[in-house]
UniProtKB/TrEMBL annotation:
PANTHER family: HAD SUPERFAMILY HYDROLASE-LIKE, TYPE 3, PHOSPHOSERINE PHOSPHATASE. It holds the Pfam family Hydrolase_3. It comes from the Bacteria. One of its GO terms (cellular component) is cytosol. The keyword Hydrolase applies. Gene3D superfamilies: 3.30.1240.10, HAD superfamily/HAD-like (3.40.50.1000). One of its GO terms (molecular function) is phosphatase activity. Keywords: Hydrolase. Transmembrane segments: none annotated. The keyword Hydrolase applies. NCBIfam families: Cof-subfamily, HAD-SF-IIB. This is HAD family hydrolase. It comes from Arcanobacterium bovis.
Length: 296
C-alpha cells in the first residue's frame, strides 16, 4: 500500500511536499501521541504545537487519538488553541477538549479487569491501571518513568489493585523490560486478553473488548460529520492499526512497528526528530499556495 519509501532515512523535503500535495484539502488530521508527536522525553514540543495551531487556523479539524489519559490528550489540544475532540485510553473515553464534556465513556468490565490483573501476575508483568483521571501501580518500576513523562502533572499512585473498584478502570497496560519475552508470551496474552494491542515493543495496552481507537474514530466522524476518506492520520504502535486502516491517508512514523508501516500509504521520519512538525509545516505551506484564495 505504501506510495512513498518506508525507510525513514530516504524521506526528503521533496517527497514530503509531494505527499502534502497528494493529500490536498483534508477534513481533519489525527495524531497518536507517544512515539508520534511526542519526543523521546514524552513531551510534545512547542514546534509541534505551533504546527497544530497552524492547521486549526486553516479550518482543519485536529483529533488526538492516544492511549494516554483523556485529560492529557485534551491538554495538547488546549495548548494548540484548538476546540476539538480528544480520544483517550485507546478509545474508551472521548470528549470535547475545551468544555471537558465527555460524550463516550466505557470502562473495562469487572471480569475483564480481574482477568488482566491475574494474567499480569501469572507472567510476572508490570501492570498499570488507568482510571478516568488517575494512574495506579502496585510498585514503582520501569514503566513509571515513561508514565511520568507522558502525564507530567499527574502523580503515579501506588496502591493495592484489589482495593480499586473494577468499574473505574478504563485501560490497563502490561510492560516488561525484555521485549522478546513479550514476543514469546504474546499468544497467551491474546488468548486471555483478546483486546490487548502491542502499543510499543515493551508494552501491551488493554481496553475493553468493545472499545478501540477504530471505533472511537467512527464515533468522532459521525458526531462531527467529517469524512474518514478525507482524514490523514499519524501513528507508530500496534494500537494505531485499527484506526489508521479506516482513514484515507494513514502515515507511519519512521520508528513505527512493522504492522503500522504495512498498512500505511507513507512513512515519514522519527518521532524524536519532530518529524510530524516538519511535515505539517510543509503541508501548511502547500495548503496556503493551493487554497490561498479560499482563505482570503
Amino acid at each position: 500500500m505504501n506510495t512513498f519509501p518506508s525507510d525513514a532515512q530516504s524521506i526528503n523535503e521533496s517527497q514530503l511536499r509531494n505527499l502534502a500535495r497528494q493529500m490536498g484539502k483534508l477534513d481533519a488530521m489525527a495524531f497518536d501521541v507517544d512515539g508520534t508527536i511526542a519526543d523521546g522525553e514524552s513531551y510534545v514540543s512547542d514546534r509541534t504545537i505551533a504546527a497544530l495551531r497552524a492547521l486549526s487556523e486553516r479550518g482543519i479539524e485536529i483529533i488526538i487519538v492516544t492511549g494516554r489519559l483523556w485529560d492529557s490528550a485534551a491538554e495538547i489540544m488546549r495548548r494548540a488553541g484548538h476546540d476539538g475532540i480528544a480520544i483517550g485510553s485507546n478509545g474508551a473515553i472521548i470528549g470535547h477538549s475545551s468544555t471537558g464534556e465527555i460524550f463516550h465513556s466505557q470502562p473495562l468490565t469487572a471480569d475483564e479487569s480481574r482477568t488482566i490483573i491475574e494474567i499480569g501476575k501469572k507472567y510476572d508483568l508490570i501492570t498499570t491501571i488507568f482510571s478516568e483521571d488517575s494512574i495506579y501501580v502496585e510498585q514503582l518500576d520501569m514503566s513509571s518513568d515513561f508514565l511520568k513523562g507522558a502525564h507530567q502533572n499527574l502523580p503515579i499512585k501506588v496502591q493495592d489493585f484489589s482495593t480499586i473498584e473494577p468499574h473505574h478502570i478504563f485501560k490497563m497496560m502490561f510492560g516488561h523490560m525484555d521485549a522478546s519475552y513479550l514476543d514469546e508470551i504474546s499468544p497467551e496474552i491474546l488468548k486471555h486478553c483478546p483486546s490487548a494491542q502491542r502499543s510499543i515493543d515493551n508494552f501491551f495496552d488493554i481496553a475493553s473488548l468493545s472499545e478501540g481507537k477504530g471505533k472511537a474514530m467512527r464515533i468522532v466522524a459521525e458526531k462531527t460529520g467529517i469524512s474518514l476518506d478525507r482524514v490523514a492520520g499519524f501513528g507508530d504502535g500496534g494500537n494505531d492499526v485499527e484506526w489508521l486502516e479506516i482513514i484515507g491517508w494513514p502515515v507511519a512514523m519512521g520508528n513505527a512497528r512493522a504492522e503500522v508501516k504495512d498498512i500505511s500509504r507513507a512513512c515519514i521520519g522519527h518521532h524524536a526528530d519532530d518529524a510530524v512538525a516538519q511535515f505539517l509545516e510543509i503541508y501548511v505551506d502547500e495548503f496556503d499556495r493551493e487554497f490561498a484564495d479560499e482563505q482570503s
